């Protein structure tokens, strides 16, 4: 898929090396197509890595998309160059009058804190509320999924006895849903989290549906508002080496670091990972774009309600 991206975004050159078709603004201006507008609120510390991971997945349909990045005014990232943020990111206030076909809100390294104690809680929940009237369909990932379920539906999160870390089997609960078209009976999803949401809480809320889960990692995808919201507790977007980087980063620095489950060949880090989630990740994002964004969004983007 031709992705419309800002000129000089680092992900462009990285993904061209993977034979993924992306276009910068200069080339796009020569075409007369109404691209889907996708906005990403990137709350992850390593923003360039997350940008690349998400763009890689968005590249897998024939639809043209324009991707832009949103940042919080109430939080300054410490692990991404200021110049990168100034060049490629816009504050919510700059984007709040626009409407978007799709939105992705990433995880954030704040899950150990009560939601209301997160420094940017007020701003991020304002963005959640805004998305309901300015975006056709929104994906909430990991911490954002827990935060969205709590903010909109009062679903609590619970601390886990130890970090849920690895690749876990997931089962679609209704394969007739368009989001699971082409899926096998089992798919795999990376998880890296210290907290969870529970099925029994979700089942008591009208309008929420658990659409996939795992005997090992619990609830994995929750759908609301007929697909205008998806809450994903894991990280389908992770690159093959992401869990390896996290494991080696924390080894020797924390006392709760365990080998990621179902990840390394022979459970040996030296043997490298076995990638089991890439095909389902591509299919999930393609289905989301095709059936919950493109098929649902109005041609006149200002008609989104």
UniProtKB/TrEMBL annotation:
The name this protein goes by in its record: Homoserine O-acetyltransferase
An example Gene Ontology biological process: L-methionine biosynthetic process from homoserine via O-succinyl-L-homoserine and cystathionine
Organism: Segatella baroniae F0067
InterPro entries linked: Class_I_gatase-like, HST_MetA, MetA_family
Top EC group: transferase
Function, as annotated: Transfers an acetyl group from acetyl-CoA to L-homoserine, forming acetyl-L-homoserine.
Principal location class: cytoplasm
Pathway terms, separated by semicolons: Amino-acid biosynthesis; L-methionine biosynthesis via de novo pathway; O-acetyl-L-homoserine from L-homoserine: step 1/1
One GO location term (cellular component): cytoplasm
């Amino acid at each position: 898929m031709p992705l419309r991206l800002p000129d000089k975004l680092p992900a462009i050159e990285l993904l061209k090396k993977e034979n993924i078709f992306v276009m910068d603004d200069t080339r796009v201006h020569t075409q007369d197509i109404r691209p889907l507008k996708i906005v990403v609120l990137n709350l992850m510390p390593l923003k360039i890595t997350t940008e690349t991971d998400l763009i890689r997945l968005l590249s897998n349909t024939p639809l043209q998309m324009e991707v832009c990045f949103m940042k919080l005014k109430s939080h300054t990232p410490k692990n991404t160059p200021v110049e990168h943020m100034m060049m490629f990111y816009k504050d919510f206030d700059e984007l709040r009058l626009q409407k978007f076909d799709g939105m992705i809100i990433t995880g954030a390294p704040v899950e150990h804190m009560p939601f209301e104690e997160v420094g940017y809680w007020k701003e991020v929940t304002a963005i959640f509320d805004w998305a309901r009237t300015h975006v056709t369909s929104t994906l909430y990932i990991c911490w954002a999924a827990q935060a969205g379920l709590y903010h909109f539906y009062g679903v609590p999160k619970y601390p886990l006895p130890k970090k849920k870390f690895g690749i876990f089997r997931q089962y679609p609960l209704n394969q007739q849903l368009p989001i699971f078209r082409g899926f096998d009976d089992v798919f795999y999803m990376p998880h890296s989290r210290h907290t969870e949401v529970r099925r029994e809480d979700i089942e008591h809320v009208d309008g929420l549906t658990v659409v996939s889960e795992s005997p090992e990692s619990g609830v994995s995808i929750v759908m609301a508002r007929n697909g205008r919201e998806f809450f994903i507790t894991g990280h389908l977007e992770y690159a093959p080496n992401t869990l390896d980087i996290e494991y080696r980063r924390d080894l020797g620095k924390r006392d709760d670091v365990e080998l990621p489950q179902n990840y390394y060949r022979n459970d040996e880090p030296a043997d490298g990972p076995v990638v089991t989630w890439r095909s389902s990740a591509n299919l999930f994002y393609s289905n989301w774009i095709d059936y919950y964004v493109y098929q649902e969004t109005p041609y006149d983007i200002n008609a989104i309600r």
